[in-house]
Amino acid sequence: GPELTLPVPAIATRKRRIGILTSGGDSQGMNAAVRAVVRMAHVKGLDPWAIYDGYQGLVDNVMRPLAWADVQGLLRLGGTVIGTARCLAFRERAGRLTAAQHLVENGIDALVVIGGDGSLTGADRLRAEWGSLLDELLATNRIDQVQRATYAHLNIVGLVGSIDNDMSSTDMTIGCVSALHRICEAVDAIEATALSHGRAFVVEVMGRHCGWLALTAALASAADWLFVPERPPLVDNWEEEMCAHLKKLKDRGQKKILVIVSEGAIDKNLKPIKSEYVRDLLAAKLKFDARVTTLGHVQRGGSPCFYDRYLGTVQGVRAVDEILRATPETPSPMIGISNNKITVEPLVQAVTLTHAVSTAIDAKDFARAMELRDPEFATSFDTFVAMNNLPVSVTGGQGLGVARVPRTLAASPTQNPRDVPTPAVPESGTGLRIGILHIGAPAGGSNAATRAAALLALNRGHTPLAIYNGVEGLVRGDWKPLTRRIVQNWTARGGSELGTNREQPGAQLGLCAYQLQRAGIQALLFVGGFEAFTAMHALATARKEYPALCIPMAHIPATISNNVPGTEHSLGSDTALNAIVDACDKIKQSASASRKRVFVMEVHGGNVGYLATLGGLAGGSTAVYIPEEGVGLHRVQRDVDHLIRRYSAEGAATKEGRILLRNEAVSSTYTTDVLCSILRAEARGLFDARSAVLGHLQQGGAPSPLDRVRATRLAAMCVDWIENQAAQAMAEADGKPALVYTMSKQSACVIGIQGATTVFTPVEDLMIDDTDLKKRRAQTAWWMEWRGLIPLLSGYTIDPDAM
Ligand code: ATP
Questions:
Q1: pLDDT digit string (tens) for 388-410?
Q2: Does 355 sit in the ligand 1 pocket, CB within 6 Å?
Q3: What is the distance in A from the centroid of ligand 1 to the CA of 352?
Q4: pTM here?
Q5: Which of 59, 152, 483, 578 is the most buried (most CB within 10 A)?
C-alpha cells in the first residue's frame, strides 16, 4: 500500500515508551510488579509510563512518565498505587478506539497489563483489534499516516494480578498468597474464641469461580469441611452426610468446628451453597453454636507477603524482557509461574483455558474443571479429604494415593465413587507403628506436618508415635502414641511440640536400634533440617548391622535455611522470608524517619544465601552478602560507592533508608559490625549506618500459610509412601506379614518439592550427588538465578554481569 513508501521514524532513535496499568480487582504485589517493570524499563533504556486507573486511564488519557525514584518504597504497599477501575467504556469498541488514540498520541507502543482474567481478556481484544482501530482512527483523521505506520504494532504483555488464583496457565497469581495470609490470620484469631466457647465457625472466603483460596485456607487452618465450586458435593443429601461427619467430631470431644465456604460454592445442580445456609444446618441439626464470618475485602488488605513481592518482582522483570523480545508476529504473552519457573504462554490461550473452567462448571463437568486447574489443586483436595477422613462418596476426593491413580480415573459425578481405587492399606490389625521425630533448629510447619502425619496414620489404622527431643529422646526411649486430641490444634503453632535439637546418632546407633525395636517402630518420619538429613543417613547406612533399622524412613525437610538437598523449599523457609521482609519494612521505616540511614541487617541461613537473596529481593535491599560469593574489599568498596552516589544524587530532598542484608556466615572478617563501621566512616556524614541482627525472630511465631499447606501435603504423602514401602517390604518378607524389613536404598528417602511435583529421593543418592557435607548445604541452588536482579533493581550503574 501507499503507506509503505512513507518515511517511518526509526523506533531505535527514540526511547520506546512502555505503558503500565493495573486493572480489575486490586491485589497485593501489584506494586512490586509495577516497581520491577519501571526499574527494569529504565535499566534497559525504555521509557516507562503509568496509566492510571486501569483502562479508564487509557480512555480518559490520564498517564505520565515514571522516574526511577517514583517507585521507591512500593514493595511494602498493598493495593495498587497507580489505581485500578472497572472500566465499562473499554468493553465497547468505541472505548477501545479512544484508548488506541491516546496510546498513539502519547507515543506508547508497548503495554504491560496487570490484572485478572477480565483485564487480560480486554488486553487481548485490544491487541486483536489494533490494526482495525488504527485504520478507523486514520480514516476519521484522529491520527495521521505517520502515526499509523509508526504504531502499527502494539506489544502487550499480561501479568496476572488476582487474589483468586483463578487464571489458567499459571500456578499462582500475584496476590493470592497474601490473601491466604489474611484468611489464616483471621481464622487463627477466631480459633481462640471458637475453642473457648465450643463454637462452629463457617468462614466465607473469596473466589467466585475458583476454590483455591478456600482449599488452601482449609489445609492451612485445619478446617473440618470445605465447599469449592470445582468439586461440589456429589450427592443430593450432602447436608445429612456433612452433619453426621461433624457430629462425630463433636462427640469425640472436638470443641472447635470450622467449615470453609468459597464465595462461589455450589451443589451438584449448580445451586449456590451459602454460608448462612451451612450455619443454619449446623445450628438446627447439630445444636451447634454456629457463626458466620464473611471475610470480604479484608482479604485484599494489608501488606503483601514475601511470595507476592517475589512473584511480582521476577514477573515484572520478565515482562520487560518479553517486550524487548516481541516481534510483530509473536502472540501477546502472559507471564506465569509453573513448576517454580517463570513461564511465558500466549495470552489468548490462557484466557481461553480460564474461561473453560467456568464453562465446565456450568456444564456440570466437574472432573474437567478440576483437571483444568494446576496439578497441585487436585492433590491438595485429596489431601484434605484424606486427612479429615471425609466421606469420598460426598466430597468426590480420592483420599490420596493419587500418585498411583491415573488422572483419568478422577471421580466424576457420573462415576460411582466407590469404584475409585484406594491405596493399599494394611488390613486392620496390621497397622504400622510410625515413629515421628524432630531434629535440628525449630522451623515453621514442623507441628503442622506432625499433626497431618499423625491424623492420616490414625485414619488408616496405624499408630503414630511421638519421639520426644530427637535422637536424644529416641536413645532414652522417650516416646508416646499420638492421639487426635493431642495433635488437633497444632497446625498454626510455631516451634516444635515434640522438642528438637541437633543431636546425631553418632556412637549411639546401637541404642537407637535397640529402642526402635523395643517400641516396635516399623517406620520413621523425620522432620527437620540438615541434621535430620545426616541423622537419617546414618541410621539408613547402619542397616547392615542393625535389623531394627531396616524400616522405611522418610525425611520432610524443615529448616529456615533451606539447605537440605532434594527439595526446592524446606518447611519454615517461607515463614522466615516473611519475617525478614516484615523486618525490612520496619527497619526501612525507621531508617527513613530519622535521617538518611543505612542498615546492615544480619540474617540466618548458615552457609546458604537463600534467605538473604530472596529476602533481599522481596524486601528491597540494596545489596546482599552471601556465602556462595563471599565478601571482600572490592565488594564493600563498590557498595560504598553506590550508596554515596545515590545519596548524593538524591540530595537533601529524600531521607530514604536503605538495607544491606548480610548472611550470618558470609565472612568472619567482614562482620555485621565491621561492615557497619566501614560504611559510617566512608559516608563522611552523607548517611548514617546502623546494624540489626534478626536472629531467632526469623523462626517467626505462627508458621506462614504456605509452610502449613506444604507441611500438610508432604506429611500426608509421606504416610502414603511409608505404607507403600512397608507393603513392598512385607511382600518381600512373605510369610511374616507383621515384619517390615527393608535394606533397599529406595526405602530411606527425602521428600522434596520440585516445581509442582513432589518427589522422594533416596538419601544415599542425595548424599553422593547433591550434598556439600563440609558446608552443610545442597550443591544446587535454583534461587541463584535471581541474585543478579538485586543490584539491577537498586540502580547499580556498573555492568551487572561483572559482579
Ligand atoms: P478480578 O480477578 O479481580 O475480577 P479482572 O481483571 O477479572 O480482575 P474484571 O472486572 O473482569 O476484573 O475486568 C477488569 C476490566 O477489564 C473491566 O472493567 C474492563 O475494563 C476490562 N475488560 C474485562 N473484560 C473485557 C472484555 N471482554 N473486553 C474488553 N474489556 C474487558
A1: 999 888 887 766 653 332 222 22
A2: no
A3: 14
A4: 0.93
A5: 578
